[in-house]
Amino acid sequence: MGTAPGPEGAGPLQKDSKVAVVKVQAVGAAPRQVTMKGLYFQQSSTSEEITFVFQERESLPVTEDNYVKLQVKACALSQINTKLLTEMKMEKDFFPVGREVAGIVLDVGSKVSFFQPGDEVAGILPLDSEDPGLCEAVRVHEHYLVHKPEKVTWTEAAGTIRDGVRVYTALHYLSHLSPGKSVLIMDGASALGTIAIQLAHHRGAKVISTACSLEDKQCLERCRPSIARVIDVSNGKAQVAESCLEETGGLGVDIVLDAGVRLYSKDDEPAVKLQLLPHKHDIITLLGVGGHWVTTEENLQLDPPDSHCLFLKGATVAFLNDEVWNLSNVQQGKYLCILKDVMEKLSTGVFRPQLDEPIPLYEAKVTMEVVQKNQGRKKQVVQF
């Protein structure tokens, strides 16, 4: 083959020579804006129903001050407390979805002292975050992140961090768990219940748990260390209070972590709630002297006789709201200690979360609809 003719005034192009191609942008044309797709929700003005939508969003602004730009590798899905957002005056047209994240630091602001590009981190985005965790990249203040141990996977980190915070809040800060205590973990096969049982066993407590199905019962019976007693409430016939009193020799349990309770008579409660949840009187009955009841029921109502019974036992009731760490800057140091400890217990195998198979981002909308209706059992994690 011959040589190809070169440009005028130049020699012929040789067979193996490389040709550089330069793209010229037209004069006056606006530079192309890089966009990312993120998941948001929109709440109906006439009802509590929410709709999940993907939206294109512009690339993140320059990282400044104490902020970190994070490439998201995994994001866990949790129910959104729309009532709390309304009470905190955080309503907006489109609210970002996904807060429990794990990823790689891409860039840091000038005042960031704990991280540098390339670090592997995990954390929980604050309630007022402008960025959805279900997006390729987010911007977050460094005080909401901790380093992820190398042996912990992205999905484990994102899928455990919030339940870990909730369990630490319930068993460490609200009920002062210590060796030898007896603990009742309601719905122990749930994502939260699994981590709670593992932390209680690690601290040397005696664990009792309830199971909402035969599958859950079998799962709990396989736990190691073994659970002292598994109470099957799936048929609606189990007497939770009697079982706990029998297991503790009539003394009652020291700590109860519920998964919701019945507040009213049988005629006023939904059938499913009747079947699976204990009545508030049962919880009060099974509590021991000086016991701690940690409840997830934000609308708990105690009548004077209930309060008097708790008074006679010297017992306490505490409300589990893990968002308190996000709402109080004073507690930031304790919060970071909890996040670090959760990662450490994942790394050492103390925490072994119940995670579903990771899903891709495009399935997040449908999966989030299931999670919001509280129809899933295992933790759902989106992997990027």
Automatic annotation (TrEMBL):
Functionally, this protein is described as follows: Component of the FERRY complex (Five-subunit Endosomal Rab5 and RNA/ribosome intermediary). The FERRY complex directly interacts with mRNAs and RAB5A, and functions as a RAB5A effector involved in the localization and the distribution of specific mRNAs most likely by mediating their endosomal transport. The complex recruits mRNAs and ribosomes to early endosomes through direct mRNA-interaction.
Gene of this entry:
CRYZL1
Record PANTHER family: QUINONE OXIDOREDUCTASE-LIKE PROTEIN 1
Q: What is this protein called?
A: Quinone oxidoreductase-like protein 1
Q: From which domain of life does this come?
A: Eukaryota
GO cellular component terms attached to this protein's record: early endosome
Give compartment(s): Early endosome
Q: Sorted alphabetically, which InterPro entries does this protein's record hold? A: ADH-like_N, CRYZL1, ER, GroES-like_sf, NAD(P)-bd_dom_sf
Main localization is other
Entry's Gene Ontology molecular function annotations: oxidoreductase activity
Q: Which Pfam families match?
A: ADH_N
Query: Which species expresses this protein natively?
Result: Lipotes vexillifer
Q: Which ranges carry the Enoyl reductase (ER) domain? A: 45-382
Tell me its family. Belongs to the zinc-containing alcohol dehydrogenase family. Quinone oxidoreductase subfamily.
Q: Keywords assigned by UniProt?
A: Endosome, NADP, Oxidoreductase
